[in-house]
Structure formats: structure tokens, C-alpha cells
Amino acid sequence: HADELKDSIYGYRDYYRMKDDDMEGKMRNHTSAIRETIDNIDPGLKTGEVNKALKGIENDLDRIEALMGSAEKAAARGVDIDMTNYIGSVRGIEKSMNGEINTLLTFAQKAGKEYNSLRGSASELRGRNNDFDDFLRDAYDSYKSDLRGTDDDLTNRIDGIAEGMDALSDSLKSADSVIRDKLDSITLSISDLSSSINSGFDEARNEIDRIRNNKDLNDIYDDVSDEGGIAPARGKIVKCTNDGDIIGDINGGGIAGMVDTDFDPRSDRERETSGNVSFKHKKTKTAVIAGCRNNGAVTVKNNGAGGIAGSMDIGAVESSFNFGPVTSVEGDYAGGIAGNSGYMIRDSFSMAAVSGNKYVGGIVGCGKNVIDNRALSTISPGVKEKYGAIAGDVEDEESTVSGNIFVDQAVGAVNGLTFENEARAVAYDEFTALPGVPKEAHSMKVSFLSEGEVLKTIEVPYGGSVSEEDFPVLPDKGNKFGVWERTDLSDIRQNTAVNAEYISFVTTVASGEPFPVMLVSGRFHMDTFISYEKRDTGDDVNTVPGGYERAEAEYSFEIHSEYGIKDSEVSVRLLSDDYDEKDSAAVKNADGSFNILETARDGRYMVFRCNTDNGRGEFYILKASPDKKIWIITGAVLLFIILLIIIRAVKKDNKKPVS
């Protein structure tokens, strides 16, 4: 029965995983269909109330897709999701989206003929959202039904096992009475022996109380982690390299998360004993990380972040190197080699940016014995207290700090102070000339990463810079706007990573009037806006190409975006109520002549494409000349009418009787 229950549980697990994957795929199809309908709406109609409603729908879609992304990440980590609650959350957002769609449809039905296409799009949106709602309702009912069936099946199987256990219990009870009779006779024999043993326990009990009340483990164990060099042995991690990024909640390091004493009697491998077997014998402990290297970034949410080890209550780090940035996001104890060290860090090197709240150091956040280390570290300016180029602080007066050297960046060695017997600050050139400083310290690397992939690495000298012209081109992510995060690269004194950020872009931005005078279409960051200026022009008629009378007006516009402009050529829609059908947009050349832009009409708007320079553009509206053929025909008709009038007048005069 137990095997059958186990097989059933595995079967249900696989079934629900496939069901979850299928549902996620169908949900994405529904949200993609709704986005596609929004993208197909005429950009010229995305203004005022329409734009507000569409943004509300897109925000709801973003929230749904964020929920789906969180669920997928949780599933990838093996975390089970309560799908009924999950679907209920999605339905709550979908109902909000339905309200925005109804608002859009109501506006479109009341608007004029120019919004005919919007009415169709709004109806299509409501249909697709209704399909989405039906799918979610069916999925919710399906999960509840499946879960009830699963619960009934597993309950029945467990009841069967319970019945079998009851029968077995009855059999054991009858055997128990026989065993008890035998035990009574054995107990009488043991009682005589126990009195002679009790006195031996007194000594043991007194020693255990002493150990229990002793707060300093070093009084119990002698830490000999610094003995034996980097030769492989029990209790040692030797010559290991990590190239991956480390992300954790607490105590995270490139080589080890935490090093501590294990009091589990089943795990006694790292303890050595010598002397007579008594409670007075010598106990030692060994925990060594030696000759290791970390190249990855270490990010820990709470306390304990280190390039080599997050937290080391015991043990030593020797001859190890860290080249990855170390961050304690919301906690304390961050160090280039270890977040905290209760024994020894010696002959190690760190070249890293280190950040945290307090106890932040280029080698160790808080240490005990910190000897002969080298640091080219940058301490984050956001650190609140207890920080230093070598150590944020040391444990007590018995700690030893000596022989350390670091690059002078206006931060003291230990807790903001530098004492000659503890550490020495030197210039960068002197530091790189020291024996044992690795070649990686002779230049700074600036790496550009997109979703974890290194697109480009630039090496610069210490204090050098990188200009935006050297940034790599970001890969196209479809409907995402890619930008490089804001990073000061004017004075580079540390290896630096610049990460790409991808944000959903908008396709149209409009001027601020209730009925916009100007709209610009392209690919923009969501916070982009435009401004424009209209000026009367005094251009001489001779500068205007044939077919046009004059330059009626000059417009200049600017696209404002914190992250720059993705497209240099944009589509411009200009409200054309003041212009005739044959008037055209044009740009002026350096010699003062004009280039006519291909200009079309779309409702009340004049539409044309225009180039921009860093988001700035300029164009003119040329007034079309009257059609000469029309004037000739009109003149001929007028002349003909005048002749007819004259002829009729002459005929009347000829008919008058002669008196």
C-alpha cells in the first residue's frame, strides 16, 4: 500500500506540472492577443481619454505577466504554487482590465466618425478579454475539481494504510506482554550494577556543565587552521575557482557560505584528539580555504557577504584571490574576502567594490587576525558605519592586524583609521609593483552585460574613462526598450559591470493639448514626452520651390527622454486645420533651399516622416500656389459670361422701335 501511495503521489506531481505548463502557455497566448489588438490601433487616436484607457489596459497586462513570471521562477526553484489562488489573483487584474476596455468602448461609441476604427478595435478587445475570462474561469473550476479528486484518492489510500497499521498494532500488543515479562528479570540484574556506575558520572556531569556554560569555543577547541599551508588535507578547500555569480539570503561567498563548528556527534571527521582518553584531552579544529579564487559577483540580501566566504566563525583563508563585487543588500558584514572572520585571513588579495550597511571592509567586514593582505577595494559611499579599506572593524584587543597594504582611496584601513603597525596606504603605481600582486590589478575592466551575457569588455588604465560611443549596441528585444544603466565611467578605479535594462516602449507620444497639435510615432521609453514651437516665417518667395507660394510656418520639436532616442527617423502627425489639402511639409537645406517631404492626409492630420538629431527636429509648412489652369478656366468662363451679357444687351437695343 505504501508503494502504491508513493507512485500515486509522483503521478499526480507530474500531472499537475504538465497542467501548469499548459495553462501558462495558454495565458500568454491570451495576453499576447490583447497586446496585438492594442498595437494595431491607429497611433493618431491614442490621445486623451483613449490613451489613458489603453495605458490602464497595458499596465494590467504588465501586472498579469509579472505574476506569470514570478510563478515560473518559483516553479523553476521547485516551489509549489497554489494554482487556485494564483488564478484568482489573475482574474482580479483581468476584471480591472475589463473596466478599462468598457471605458474605451463607451468613448468610441460616443465619438465622431474619425473614431470608427477605434470602435471596431475596442469591440475586438472586449471579445478577446471575454475569451480570457472564460479561460480563467474554466481553469479555476478544472483545478478545483482535480484537487478534490486527488484529495479523495490519496485519502482512501492513506485510510487503507492506516487499517493495515491497526492490524499490525494488535499483533504487536500480544508480543509486547511476553517481552515485558523478560525485561522485569533483566531490570533486577541491572539495578545492582547501576549504583557502582553512578559515581563515575559525577565527573562527566561536572565537565559537561563547564563546556555548556563556556561561551568561547576556543577554550574547548584549539583552532589550528593556519598550520599546514595549502596542501590538501581533511578540513580544507584547496585551489578551487568560482566563475559564477552568487545570490543568497544570508551568508553567501564565492567559495563557501559559512564555516563553523559542527557539534553533531555523527560528524566528527574534522576533529583530532591526542593525549589520554579523558575529559582533559586536547581537542583541535581545522577549517582552511587556501589557494582559491572567485571571479563572480556575490550578492546577499542580509548579513554575511564575502568574496571567498560569507561567514567564518572559525577557520582560516590563506593565499586566496577575489575579483568579484561583494554586496550585502540590506544587512551587515561584507568583505572582499570574508563577511566576518573569527580566526585568520592571511596572504590574500581582493580587488572589488564592497557595499553593505555596516562592518564593511576591503578584506573583511569584521575580523580577528588579518595579516599580510593586499586590497584594491572600493567601499560604497552608502555604508553607514564601521568600514575600512582592510577591515570594517576587529573583534577585540587580542586581535592581530599587521602587514596589510592597500591602495589609498581616502578610506582608512580599519574602521576609518590607519595605524602604521596594522596597514599601509600606497599609491596605485606602487601597489601594482609589489611582489605577488596579480596582473589583473594592472588595468580596470568595464564589462557590459545583457541578461547575464557579456557583450563587451573594455580595459582601461586606473583612473581612465569610457565614453558612451564605446558602449556596445544592445540586442533587439522586440517590444522592449533597451538602455544601459546609469554608471559613472569618468574615473574608473575598480572593475565595473554595466547592466542592460529592458523596459516596454510606447509607440506614440503627443503634445499636451486636449486634442494634440503634434504626435510623433517611433519607439520610445514610457516616460518620453515632446515639446514644440511654431514660428511665423519671413522666407522670400524665391527660396520656395515651384508650385508653392511661401513658407507658411516653421516648426521645431524636441523629444525628451531620460534614456535617449532609439530611432533617428520618426513619423510626425501635425494638426492641419489651418492648412490646405495641397500644402506640404519640407525641410530646409544648408544652402537655404527646401526639400519637400512626402506628405499625406489622415483625417485632420498632415502625416510625414522627419529626421531628428538627438531627439530634435525641424520642418516647414509650404503654402501651395493656386492652380493656374483653374484661374485660366475661371477667367475664360467669366469672359464668356460678360460677352453673353453684352450680346443680349445689344440685341435688346436693336429691337427697340425707332420713333
Quick take:
By secondary structure, this protein is α/β, with parallel strands linked by helices. The protein contains 6 helices and 45 strands.
| Averaged pLDDT | 81
Please state the structural category. alpha/beta
User: How many strands in all?
Assistant: 45
Strand order across the largest sheet: 3-10-15-20-25-30-31
Total helical segments: 6
Radius of gyration: 40 Å
Shape: flat
Helix content: 25-40%
Question: Could you give a short account of the major beta sheet?
Answer: 7 strands, parallel
Q: Which blocks of ≥5 consecutive residues have pLDDT under 50? A: 263-282
Which key features would you list for this structure?
6-stranded parallel beta sheet, single chain, 6 helices, 7-stranded parallel beta sheet, 34% helix, 659 residues, alpha/beta
Q: Describe it for me?
A:
- By secondary structure, this protein is α/β, with parallel strands linked by helices.
- The strands form nine sheets. Strands 3-10-15-20-25-30-31 form a seven-stranded parallel sheet. Strands 2-9-14-19-24-29 form a six-stranded parallel sheet, with no helix packed on it.
- Helix 2 packs antiparallel against helix 3 (83-110).
